[in-house]
Amino acid sequence: MIAVWAMVLHLSYLPMRVSRYGRYACALLVVFLSLAGCSMKLPDPPKPLPRFAAAARLVPPDRMFTLSDGVAIPARVWKAQEQPRGILLALHGFNDSRDAWEQPAPFFAGQGITVVAPDQRGFGEAPNRGEWAGSDRMVQDVREEIAILQKENPQIPLYLTGESMGGAILMLLMSKSDAPSVAGTLLLAPAVWNLGLGADIPLDVLATLFPHHLVTGRELPVHVVASDNPAALLRLYFDPLTLRATQLEALRGLVGLMKQAAAAAPQIKGPLLCVYGDKDQLVPSKAMAKVWETLPKGTRLDLISGGHHLLLRDKNGKQVMQDMLSWITQPDSFLPSGGDVSASTWQAQNPAKPEGKWFPASWLDGLAR
Predict the structure, then answer these.
(1) Residue 351 C-beta-side C-alpha neighbours within 13 Å
(2) Which of 45, 100, 263, 299 would disulfide-bridge 295, Cβ 3.0–4.6 Å?
């Protein structure tokens, strides 16, 4: 089904001898007919072969955050192995879960930094699994989690980090006029991209007509590499908390969030590190270059050579962890990877330009899996 939706977006800009609205109407008719066979029930987790059973383990949460509306948000916690010198509130990406941090978290815990990784509302084991809570509600959730952690640990610096969608949520939060006071924000391949009307119009129509219909991305004849680490991808695939299908309403919400985050970049407050990999196939380089140009003065930029979208799960993920740790503990020093120097060169080679009017199906395939 997702391939059909991507086709809608391509059709909207084909040089056909009909009006733009005529192309939308034809494309949407195709999708309408295709939706008849779409499911509205989230698929069950796949059952792995015995040798992959560990990848399908369900790790129970270590704590719950009770929020102002009564909702309980589960979270995993990796406590600092010594006297804590910082707490890292870590947000996962789209269709991911709190388990996104199980690979890097022990590294930070070993360096005296406690990692707290909640499921975001609608994902993992959080309430309303598979449904889009809305960016305002998701931002409010994080704000309340910050307040809880700061009340519990008034003397320990609190840092925020977010991967992909999680980074976009933090961009919105920290751009508010009443942004919380934290020690710093670390963005890892934040989901930032204004797709334009070519994506917005057909997606808005489809999500309005069929908000709960599911798309999977399996129909697309493309291959996206989110990480070069097969073991990490295996865990992500078999993890029972991973969402394997996406409601059209959630997809519309994600697209809107990306646009909001890109627009919010100039207003972000507080110390900021933004990390991006030059092999990221989900957030285009032009979109990231445009955001990098608009981030506040003083933002530290970090380009990871060979880095994919899931930076911390790559084979060289420890390089990213070391950069993050260095920025937290020695914010005025050069990053160990040399990524801050590489970022300057990369920016010169990838100037921000107006983004194209087409929507690559490969990006959507990777994000919805």
Answers:
(1) 2
(2) 299
Residue 137 in domain: yes
Task: Say yes or no to pLDDT of 1 above 50.
Answer: no
How many CA within 13 A on the CB side of residue 201? 19
CA nearest 187: which of 74, 75, 82, 280?
280
In a domain, 49, yes or no: no
Comparing CA positions, the residue from 321, 254, 268 lying closest to residue 299 is: 268
CA–CA gap between residue 193 and residue 263 (Å, rounded): 9
Amino acid 364: pLDDT: 39
* 352 has a pLDDT exceeding 90: no
The count of domains in the chain is: 1
pTM of the model: 0.86
Looking up residue 152, the CATH number of its domain turns out to be 3.40.50.1820
Instruction: Give the range of the structural domain holding residue 28, as residue numbers without chain letter.
Output: 2-43+54-368
**Crossing angle of the two packed helices 285-294 and 248-264, in degrees rounded to 10:** 40
User: What residues contact 227, with CB distance under 8 A and at least 6 apart?
Assistant: 233, 308, 309, 310, 313, 314
How many whole angstroms separate alpha carbon 112 and alpha carbon 108? 7
Say if residue 367's pLDDT is above 50.
no
d(CA 123, CA 267): 28
For position 173, what pLDDT does the model report?
99
Torsion over CA: 69, 178, 190, 160 (sign): negative
What are the start-end ranges of the H helices in the chain? 2-11, 20-34, 105-110, 135-152, 165-174, 197-209, 230-238, 248-264, 285-294, 317-329, 339-349, 361-368
pLDDT at res. 363 = 41
Residue % of the chain over a pLDDT of 90:
71
Of 108, 101, 90, 88, nearest to 157 by C-alpha is 88
pLDDT in tens, 297-328: 999 999 999 999 999 999 999 999 999 999 99
Which range, of 114-118, 194-198, 269-273, 342-346, averages the lowest pLDDT? 194-198
Do the domain assignments include residue 106? yes
